Amino acid sequence: MLKIKSYVKVKNVAEAYELNQKKTALVLGGMVWLKMGNRNISTAIDLSGLGLDTIQEFDDEFVIGCMTPLRELEINESLNEYTHGAIQESLRHIVGVQFRNCATVGGSIWGRYGFSDVLTMFLGMDTWVELYDAGKIPLTEFVNRKKDNDILVNIIVKKQPLRVCYMSQRNTKTDFPVLTCVASMIGEEARTVIGARPGHAVVVEDKDHILKNFKNMTKKQREEAIRKFAEYAAANVKTSGNMRASAEYRTLLVEVLTKRTWETIGGMKDEY
User: Fold this and answer.
1) Architecture of the CATH domain 162-267
2) Widest pairwise Cα distance in the chain
3) What is the pLDDT of residues 101-118, one digit of tens each?
4) pTM above 0.70, yes or no
5) Is the peptide bond before 198 cis (omega within 30 degrees of 0)?
6) What keywords tag this UniProt record (predicted)?
7) Structural domain 56-158, CATH architecture
């Protein structure tokens, strides 16, 4: 049960930041995960009156407000066209439409939850977070930062030439994922992200440069590179077991989903 002593609907982000410096204060997102815990909150900070629930598209980027519901991402035509439908695929298994109408992208990204489909998906793009105090930093850096009392304002997706594919494995359709995987070509960069390990999503560092120049490979070269990289990912991504799956099963899934997502990328048209 949540016990809230004081509730404040803030007038600006500066006010939210000031209130959030108290250890027992908390910024409210969609409340779909938070409400399941037990916590005493001295000041509940509501950002819903700040207009941070929109998706703005510019020539070079998408700017997504922290209070934007996941459902808005799921049905946004521009985002889904840009990601070849991967955004929609990453969200469609999350409980149900009613849930996705409440859950916010800011809550998903800020929480850095191990089970987060959203975090995995956004790590597969050139994504930045805009924080009130720290400014704009890459999501790849933010995901490993120690949690603090800053305020997440916007999620920014830079528009680079992109091929991206999202896949997940679940025991049942709307359950938490057993493993999530994104393969993407961001410009010339090949990136693979594995989530629900069950730790938070990580970018697989291709130290052996197996996928280097993937775009320019022949079909046979791509097939061999994908096979090698899938084995490499399985050997280098740390997994563990929980009630949904064993570490061994997750490691097997790392290889399988990495292979399948990169096969999809390899079969996409050359035009972005």
Assistant:
1) 2-Layer Sandwich (3.30)
2) 63
3) 899 999 999 989 889 999
4) yes
5) yes
6) Flavoprotein, Oxidoreductase
7) 2-Layer Sandwich (3.30)
